[in-house]
Write a structure and sequence with these properties.
Shape: globular
Oligomer: single chain
Bound molecules: zinc ion
Number of strands: 0
Number of helices: 8
Largest sheet: none
Radius of gyration: 17 Å
Length: 192
Amino acid sequence: MTGRTHDLAALNTLAFVAIIADGGGSITLSTLLVALLANQIGGIAPDIDQPTAPFWRNLPIGGYFGRIIDRMLGGHRFITHSLIGLGLFAFLSNMLLHFLHPIMRSVDIDLVWIAFIVGMVSHLIMDTFTKEGVPWLLPIPIKFGIPPIKALRIVTGKKMEKFIFTLLVAIDIWLIAMNYDHLLRLFHARII
Ligand SMILES: [Zn+2]
């Protein structure tokens, strides 16, 4: 699965969660922006175990660090693509956000944290539909995939992924169109 599909899937999932879980409270503009950023980082974070991942490509000597991290984490689609990895990331990101909170007081770090987790979960779900599958239950070394027949799953960068990408764009437009009034109210009254 390519980085841009993951980015889009993360955003889709976040929009979906935001629409469903509308608590009625207001959020600051800085919370919204930081949450979106955290969501996108969460959407590609599991692929830090891949030296060629977008996460590393965008850093100056990222390829080098990527290879080291790759070895440490047991290779591609290992610990970062499991529930244990998810728990670990959730814990570490929570610590980091609490550490950073004093320099961004107007940001609701709990919401930012949720956006990050949502992005990460969307990544694992998307990868489950690919040929390689996801070792959700590590240390049990089984890679799960949907559908169970490998031949029917998505191959990264191939036609099916392009179709999924288009589908995600369509879902995005549909989500916005269906909830237009709701989103408008959110932007008018709740973002401060
Ligand atoms: Zn992945």
